[in-house]
């Protein structure tokens, strides 16, 4: 008879299965960070190469802005790749 009552109420084992709210929050943050990283690299074979290309483009922009500020602005051709 005691076996029948254990399935109807919350047993001590069931309450221990749920993580604390702080642990759950940390798990959610970790999962969100993992999803963000996966989405950033989706479709990119070499993420390091993409990062270097972005840095080169930013550096080129900085040089152009600096040249314009110094009055050395020359019309330059820009290559655009898709």
TrEMBL record:
Alphabetized InterPro entries for the sequence: SVIP, SVIP_metazoa
Compositionally biased residues, Polar residues: 8-18
Q: Does the keyword Lipoprotein apply?
A: yes
Keyword check for Lipoprotein, yes or no. Answer: yes
Q: Where is the composition biased (Basic and acidic residues)?
A: 21-51, 58-69
Q: Which GO terms describe its biological process?
A: negative regulation of ERAD pathway; negative regulation of retrograde protein transport, ER to cytosol; negative regulation of VCP-NPL4-UFD1 AAA ATPase complex assembly; positive regulation of autophagy
Instruction: Give me the ranges of the annotated region Disordered.
Output: 1-82
What Pfam families does this protein's entry cite?
SVIP
- Lineage, top-rank taxon, reads Eukaryota
Alphabetically ordered keywords of this record: Lipoprotein, Myristate, Palmitate
How is this protein annotated for GO cellular component?
Answer: endoplasmic reticulum membrane
The name under which this protein is listed is Small VCP/p97-interacting protein
Which source organism does the UniProt entry give?
Drosophila madeirensis
């Amino acid at each position: 008879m005691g076996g029948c009552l254990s399935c109807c109420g919350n047993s001590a084992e069931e309450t221990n299965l749920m993580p604390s709210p702080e642990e759950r929050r940390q798990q959610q943050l970790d999962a969100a960070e993992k999803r963000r990283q996966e989405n950033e690299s989706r479709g990119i074979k070499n993420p390091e190469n993409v990062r270097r290309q972005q840095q080169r483009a930013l550096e080129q922009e900085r040089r152009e802005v600096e040249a314009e500020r110094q009055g050395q602005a020359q019309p330059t051709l820009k290559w655009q790749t898709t």
